Amino acid sequence: MSRPPAPEACSPSRRRVLGSAAGATLVAAAGVGSASAAPSAASSAAPSALESASDTGDRHVSYREWSGRDVVVGRFSGRRDHVDPFDDTATSRSYDVATWVSPVVRPGFGLTELVASWNADTPGRSWVEVAVRGRTDGVATMEYVLGRWCRYDPTQGGGIHRTSVKGQGDSVATVYTDTLATRSGHVLDEWQLVVRLMRPTGTRETPRLRSVGAMASALPDTERVPRSPQGRARGQVLDVPTFSQETHIGHFPQWDNGGEAWCSPTSTSMVLAYWGVGPRRDETAWVTEAMPSEADPQVDFAARNVYDYTYDGGGNWPFNTAYAATRPRMRAFVTRLRSLTEAEEFIAAGIPLITSVSFEKGELDGAGYGTNGHLMVVVGFTRDGDVVCNDPASHLVRDNGEVRVVYDREQFENVWVPHSGGIVYVIHPERHRLPRAPRREPNW
């Protein structure tokens, strides 16, 4: 099928800036823009394969999360005025503030990057702000804002335009969209999350934090990793629906124009459809009213509801997982995996993974394009250990039937692990158990 010229890629991604820290030499996009009933739960992980593949060596990753009673927030005892920079009226609004602070986390290594993720409810015009602070050489850092988020944008009745925050760098660290990264020569020995729940003053529109966590890492500057040993998902492929981002080229310019820029919301939509919790027809009515022939309005819906107005795109990692967790009884978070052997644990547990990759054209046989940042879904593994993916770029063809593809295991591992550090979105129902995490430096 012929394809019209691709739109220009969106603004430079923080994936490019963070590439050297993750051991990547990211390349200019060539066709794909920057970003951005289920099987039952698995039994206990096979310790030999998992623990061998998860031996940290110099690839340190850890994940900590709090939920339930551990994230109960006290009284709204503070007050704050805030101007939404994307509100045309530029009106300052007053909010009552309740603050939750995590315990101090000492990961046991000097971290160089951190990505937080959260699951929250934000009724009415309430919203949440997630920040992190730490210590380096015994000295406290400033507090870095990792996101200001609410479920809906203001035209849908939400409180603010969800956004990352620019210009927070100091001599110790900086924030690239959703990722805290330390400056050269600096590490953080400990970290602590701070979440502020914002309620319009004089209302009872109270946000609720259901869970919050963060992935901290310190990764080697290496361009390649060895092929990982096969794990427990040999020959298993999950029945994840296929959606192509290419069928949405030119949709809704106000949310990054569809197509090349929508790999992340398209991938998130595929996983939500797998779990049967995508948006209802009444929720996507605004899409079909504008585009009556649209076959996959859930992708347009997701693109709007993960959009970061500062990043100017849909590739903000925790905004995608926060959106996924707004669906009924869902939980979602961002972490890093060390290898495809670890990824196989999730497939064996019936949980597809959304992965962040980048590669030059020709580095990943069968893709047919190159990209400086792309999201795709790992849905299974062949008997030989190669990776079965739902790639929303669909060979740059506007066809859902072109989305399912098999990629060489070693090639895929090397466009994923060194380049994004092994970033994944983990999206699953609250009652669907995760596989057992590695004992040393658990990363989920």
UniProtKB/TrEMBL annotation:
Biased segments, Low complexity type: 37-54
Species classification: Bacteria, Bacillati, Actinomycetota, Actinomycetes, Micrococcales
Name of the protein: Peptidase C39 family protein
A Pfam family reported for this protein in Swiss-Prot or TrEMBL: Peptidase_C39_2
All residue ranges annotated as the Peptidase C39-like domain in the record: 251-393
Sequence segments annotated as region (Disordered): 37-61
Signal peptide segment: 1-37
Keywords: Signal
UniProt organism field: Terrabacter ginsenosidimutans
